[in-house]
Design a protein that fits this description.
154 residues, alpha+beta, two-stranded parallel sheet, 14% strand
Length: 154
């Protein structure tokens, strides 16, 4: 909480004391936070930093942040496609945290360039290197289980 508290205080101060649009750039807000705290912080950042004409840029290495961004994007989409279910969506994901995919971009820096991670058809973040690492670890774990039981590797 030590690293995130000054951030919270500053954003609250800026939101209360100016009518001018703000651009918030936050580097790795997930540092020192448990995954559920990362999700709560992301909800709060989206709510506070994207009001009106404000915009929010986040850099991250956290697969939890990327996964939660997909949840916020998808909540918006479900409510837009099924307005009669918007209140039910809001019970699962706070309405103030929904992200319009048309106002969202996600990039990965790779090999000296930048590539979009957003699947244009789905409006969600596609598989990426951080997800791949999790998948690789899960595959290795599955193979260790197979080895321990004397079963052939995949």
């Amino acid at each position: 909480m030590q690293s995130v508290t000054p951030l919270l205080v500053l954003i609250e101060h800026l939101n209360r004391n100016t009518e001018q649009a703000q651009s918030f750039i936050i580097e790795e807000p997930e540092l020192n936070l448990y995954p559920t705290a990362q999700q709560g912080l992301l909800n709060w950042l989206v709510e506070k930093c994207t009001k009106g004409e404000n915009d929010l840029t986040i850099t991250t290495h956290s697969p939890y942040i990327l996964s939660h961004l997909n949840l916020l994007l998808y909540a918006y989409q479900v409510a837009e496609q099924h307005p009669e279910r918007a209140d039910e969506v809001a019970e699962l994901v706070p309405r103030e945290s929904w992200i319009n995919p048309k106002e969202f971009a996600c990039y990965q820096v790779e090999n000296g360039g930048v590539i979009s991670l957003v699947n244009e058809d789905l409006g969600l973040i596609d598989d990426n290197g951080l997800d791949g690492l999790s998948g690789d670890a899960a595959d290795a774990f599955d193979n260790l289980i197979r080895l321990s039981k004397g079963v052939a590797l995949k």
